[in-house]
Input
Amino acid sequence: MARIPLLQMSDISLTFGGDPVFDQLNLVVQPGDRVALVGRNGSGKSTLMKVMAGLVEPDRGDIVVPPGVSVGYMEQDPDMKGFATLGDFASAALEPGEMYKVERAGEGLKFDPARAVETASGGERRRAALARLMAEAPELMLLDEPTNHLDIEAIAWLEEELKATRAGYVLISHDRAFLRALTRATLWIDRGMVRRQEKGFEDFEAWRDKVWDEEDLQRHKMDRKIKAEARWAVEGISARRKRNQGRVRALKDLRAERSAMIKRQGSAAMELSAGPKSGKKVIDAKGLSKSYDGKSIVQDFSLTVQRGDRVAFVGPNGVGKTTLIKMLMGELEPDAGTVSLGTNLLPAVFDQARAKLDPEMTLWDSLTGDPEMRVSGKADQVMVRGNPKHVVGYLKEFLFDDRQARAPVRSLSGGEKARLLLAKLMAKESNLLVMDEPTNDLDVETLDLLQELLDDYDGTVLLVSHDRDFLDRVATTTIAMEGNGQAVTYAGGWSDYRAQRQEDAPKKAEKTKQKAEKAKAEKAAPTAGLSFTEKHRLEALPGIMERLEAEIAKLEGFMADPELFTKEPVKFQKATEALVERQTALQDAEEEWLVLEEKAESNS
Output
């Protein structure tokens, strides 16, 4: 029995400003489909998704959603007018008594339903929009960059939810690991054409390269044929003018067909030039501690960063990754500890909040108005790594066209804003890059290029990212910040960190066991000179310490499960708090036992 599609699009055409976004598009989404929607920044992915959601009207064609089928779209910039809190917005379409669905999604996505709309950040608003979609659970979900503004824990929660859902979905994301884990089909938008393959994102790049190779071969064959026909036209046409006019027309048609072939957009011509070498030791941090409003960011944290290191900082949103980096850069004073910066440092910063981009300025003014890029007396040039360049020429290196140069920044997509910020960053020489969420919104090809540039960069990189694949490909060291001041250094990227964390659990358990055995052996410590209460306390402390060590070992064993961090974030947080509480209690008990034991020995 044939399945009834969730959505069917027939002969869809859409044009913006004279250029077709897509033409004669036919598309079917079936129940249970898990589809990756991929393409270069600006290719029309978000526009196509809005057409599917009924938010953009095509110039031509039909869109059919069967009666009773619900389609949900995650808004990038949700309109929350009329709602007091994020929870009010997220639960607006639910039945009375179903608020628990929003609260559950709020736990997984880490937003507070009670947060007032007027004080919520853009990231919190987007998480509320995603929570609304997950709570409503439509038959077809349209998800446009759902992982933006999510930390790794929340991404993993969403990944598990989408694996378990029976709904169909179409998914736009820059996160390779997310796409590989979830998709079973791929829609590829390329130069106005939409292709479909019944394989997930895992096979996309091989498919794309094969299509492009076939295109190149076809172009090569056509060029050779045109060249041969043109030679014939020059050498032999004069003797057979009347009989061969058809062949002349065929040559004209061949040239027209060749001209109609749409040239592929090349990769961004980004360059990353390191300035003079810094000293061998870039950052030397010792014993850093920092707290805000009673919340510990780091406790007694030490780190040495050498020239050429690529250090990644991972952990939940709000755990203090950016704060720690600011301390390491000398921008923020720690409560305790010292930071020593190396010599000859030329830092450059990629700002997570895009604070350096004025939405009302044009791209042209955004570059020429930057004091670090301004060329004196030249309003149409920018200084790029010590050399003047025409502003439009430099923008073209980052895949912007002439028309966009005079457009306001607010008209850009998220990926285009990221590219513009990279253009500002890469215009100056540096030997220390600080990159806070540089991967958000970038397409696959630009991510690949950025990774290659960082690999070849003759400087040092401090990186914050929630993109697990990018972390694996770039980081040489990972600082895992897990809350309550815990920041642990691991060699390698994300996968290396997870593997090492799993291996550490048995070692900690063995160490705890040894301490418990030592406490048992010390139960018979001398008690002369102690009061009655102190004597009984000294006798009781080894048992207390043994119990605490057993509880710590149990908690550490429980937390060693690599899936706990992602599947049960609430349990993980509670276990972390319990672990810190017991570790503190054990330390206090050991100190008390040592004082009493010394007192007993001194009076024996």
